[in-house]
Amino acid sequence: MSEQAIGVFDSGLGGLTAVKEMVKVLPQENIIYFGDTARVPYGSRSEETIRQYAAQDAAFLLSKNVKMIIAACGTVSSVATELKDTLPVPFTGVVIPTATAAVRATRNGKVGIIGTSATVRSCSYKNEILRQNEKITVYQQDCPLFVNFVENGFISEKDPLVQLLVERYLCDLKKNGIDTLILGCTHFPIIAEAISDYLGKNVRLIDSGKETALYAANILNNHGLLNHSETIGSCSYYVSDTVEGFMHTAEIFLGKSVHDEVKHINIEKVALRLQG
User: Fold this and answer.
1) CATH of 6-93+210-275, one of 3.30.70.890, 3.40.640.10, 1.10.443.10, 3.40.50.1860
2) Which entry of 67, 175, 181, 216 is 20 to 30 Å from 141 by CA?
3) Whole-angstrom Cα distance, residue 169 to residue 1?
4) Which residues belong to the active site?
5) 236 CB contacts (<8 Å, ≥6 apart)?
6) 95-208: which CATH topology?
């Protein structure tokens, strides 16, 4: 079972930041990624719809015989918390790993959180931080347009539009004197330089993709599921919208071409077939 793939899913492309970190942390592991690009973004959907989509995404990955599932999506991790209890394999979202890293990182006890509207409404990161340390002051800000900017290639820290949006969303967090900021959506590390430029180098950014990759490695180790093969693992990608659109943007996220590794599926039809 240790040679089976790790399944990773996200509402779109943001989860590729987690995949990139996982390849660094666990280079021998095989990874299957599903990006629900036809239904992105999840952050503006109702909680019922988010739970439905998450269950369908996980069911697809289970059909690929994965040994673990990672919801590399802040929205799913925040809203579909019951998903873990329905799966026959180990599971993690991004909330616990990321919140834990923020608690360890803060020096002045002021932590900021940015995410989609659904993530911020859920207070998932805030609640987890306060569960670990009730003395920390937490400030939240939803940044719904960040996802659209990233997926449309507006990512340069020198782009005036990116700078304007960063300032618009983060001005209150900066005024409140945070020293740690959780990038509570896996899209957000792509514009980390613009965020850091605005907040200043003294504010530590917590990358949910990186922290989740490290956390997943510990889970696999604890379950005896690490792949000890000496060969480099493979990555395959599935999307629910056009392959062409995904490939172009995926190269920005991953820093390499994925031309021959992407396939299209109709997630709703697949879900109906699996349920039947």
Assistant:
1) 3.40.50.1860
2) 216
3) 45
4) 73, 185
5) 5, 31, 32, 33, 261, 262, 263
6) Rossmann fold (3.40.50)
Cite the residue boundaries of each domain of the chain with CATH code 3.40.50.1860: 6-93+210-275, 95-208
C-alpha distances in Å from residue 27, one per residue of 63, 149, 231, 234: 23, 30, 9, 9
The tokens of 27 are what? 């280079």
CA distance 155 to 22: 22
Roughly what angle, to the nearest 10 degrees, separates helices 160-175 and 192-199? Answer: 50
- Mean pLDDT for each 10-residue chunk of the chain (276 residues)? 92 90 95 94 91 96 97 92 95 96 98 94 96 98 91 88 97 98 91 96 94 95 94 94 88 83 93 81
Residue 48 backbone dihedrals phi, psi, to 5 degrees: -60, -45
Q: Tell me which DSSP letter residue 139 carries.
A: E
